[in-house]
Amino acid sequence: MKKAFLLGRGISNSLSPAIQNAAFRKLRINAAYELEDLNRRSFASFFSSLSISDTIGFNVTSPFKEEIMSYLTAIDPRSKSIGAVNTVKIIDNQIGGMMGFNTDYDGIFAALRRLGCLRESAKQKSAVVLGAGGASRASIYVLLNNGYSNLTILNRTVSKARVLSKRFESLFPKSEIEIAPLTEAKFAKSIENCGLIINTISKSNSRYFPLKKLDLSRIASKTAVFDLGYKEESTFLKTARRSGLKTIDGLLMLVTQAAKSFEIWTGRKAPFDLMMATAKSVLQHSV
Ligand SMILES: NC(=O)c1ccc[n+]([C@@H]2O[C@H](COP(=O)([O-])OP(=O)(O)OC[C@H]3O[C@@H](n4cnc5c(N)ncnc54)[C@H](OP(=O)(O)O)[C@@H]3O)[C@@H](O)[C@H]2O)c1
Q1: Which domains, and CATH codes, for the chain?
Q2: Which of 36-50, 207-221, 256-270 has the lowest mean pLDDT?
Q3: Ligand 1: residues whose CB is within 6 Å?
Q4: Is 65 a catalytic residue?
Q5: Cα–Cα dist 134/12, whole Å
Q6: Cα of 130 to ligand 1 centre, how many Å?
Q7: How confident is the model over 88-129, as pLDDT tens digits?
Q8: What is the pTM of this model?
Q9: Atom of ligand 1 nearest to the CA of 161
């Protein structure tokens, strides 16, 4: 039996094993998807003990989406531009080659299309991205690659937002990317003229989330809000929904990125509806 893995830290509640194993079973692929909960040191040693010939590939999540790139023999051009990889395919068992992809891109694209944010009229306005981690990188790239040119990145650690603004302004010279700390005042100012807010902050329901009083009163009524979380509706998304804004959580993104990873590993069409039903069922039984 071949193996596929999710490499990350604090991933014990991940839905990915259920989603991927349901797909393997449905297509009668003799493979099992397993979790590898790693820290920085065990991440490095994972590769020395990996049996390449027994592995189909793996997913990579926080905090390793950037670090993984130095272990790969090839990276597809889109993922190289994003600067983060969440899917690795074993490409050549003889030499042990590994190729990296970013299927978060496909997931984010699907969510934005569902929200209607990829229509020409929507792109005239600016977009605000909360966070500057791996998922933020992919979100910013999807936006710029699909016609948005005016972005604001708000992040707790401003230096990380600066790294992203420099990177993406040089990749997309017509773009204008503002950065600011993630404070209530900066948030209120930056949403005034925006048409889309993407929240990529992890654990935004925690008491450490800096936007306590979410003032959406100055936001345009057609603004759309995408929150990448999917386990429980974040206070952020709930407030946006109750304010009458168009909203979407991260479930469609999660299943789309998983389906794309499956297709990269197996070369077969992923059973998307089954994967979505499995994700919904696991979520339902975990509350
Ligand atoms: N739906 C999906 O398919 C999908 C896919 C990928 C990711 N996600 C979700 O997206 C989120 C981000 O993932 P990631 O890979 O980008 O993670 P990451 O690289 O670790 O980035 C985490 C981001 O959250 C910020 N943050 C964390 N704790 C914070 C706090 N207490 N206050 C303020 N900011 C805080 C970090 O700010 P600093 O830079 O200041 O540390 C950083 O911007 C996670 O919740 C993940 O589950 C969902």
Answers
A1: 2-102+255-286 (3.40.50.10860), 105-249 (3.40.50.720)
A2: 207-221
A3: 62-63, 65, 104, 107, 131-136, 155-157, 160, 182, 200-203, 206, 208-210, 228-230, 250, 253-254, 257
A4: yes
A5: 19
A6: 9
A7: 999 866 666 899 999 999 999 999 999 999 998 888 889 999
A8: 0.96
A9: 39
